[in-house]
Amino acid sequence: MKKEDRQTEKMRDTIRYKTSKKRCNLYVKNFPAEWEEENLKELFEKYGEIEKIKLEKKGSACFAFVCYRTPEGAATAKQNLHNQTIEGKSLIINHYEIKEVRELQREEAIDKSNYE
């Protein structure tokens, strides 16, 4: 198999894997800046088994990805925690969207608006 074909197949496998985990991953923002992964785990583990938490702090922006073992755990956490006020901040929780899919949706929206 050619190198280009292997890279294409690897990308397909990556997208397939990310798609399979899509409903299990939550994107969380607007939580207290001093929080660490342990604080997030304590809050989110009530709703299901957590596979992984990835916390990102870039300047004043803090956000996290919380990955559950099952889509049900993620859905329950989102339903119960979205817009909940914690230390004066209202949590914002969305299902994680794959970057490649997000870009395609954005391009489609631009094409649609240009057509109209």
**Mean pLDDT score:** 84
What's the CATH C level? Alpha Beta
How far the N terminus sits from the C terminus, by CA atoms, comes to 44 Å
- Globally, the shape reads globular
| Spatial sequence of strands, sheet with the most strands | 2-3-1-6
Strand content: 25-35%
Count of strand segments:
6
Low-confidence stretches: none
Structural class: alpha+beta
So how many helices?
A: 4
CATH architecture: 2-Layer Sandwich
Could you give the order of the helices and strands? HEHEEHEEEH
The whole-angstrom Rg is: 17 Å
- CATH superfamily membership: RRM (RNA recognition motif) domain
> Residue share in helices?
40-55%
Which key phrases capture this entry?
alpha+beta, Alpha-Beta Plaits, 4-stranded antiparallel beta sheet, 6 strands
Structure, described:
The chain is an alpha+beta fold and 116 residues long. Strand 4 (85-86) and strand 5 form a beta hairpin. The chain has a 4-stranded antiparallel β-sheet with strand order 2-3-1-6. Strands 4-5 form a two-stranded antiparallel sheet. It has 4 helices and 6 strands; from the N terminus they run H-E-H-E-E-H-E-E-E-H. It has one domain (23-115): Alpha-Beta Plaits, CATH 3.30.70.330.
Give the topology.
Layout: H1 3-21, E1 25-29, H2 37-44, E2 50-58, E3 61-68, H3 71-81, E4 85-86, E5 89-90, E6 92-95, H4 99-115
Antiparallel strand pairs: 1-3, 1-6, 2-3, 4-5
Quick recap of the structure?
The protein is of the alpha+beta class. It has one domain (23-115): RRM (RNA recognition motif) domain (Alpha-Beta Plaits, 2-Layer Sandwich), CATH 3.30.70. Helix content is 47%, strand content 26%.
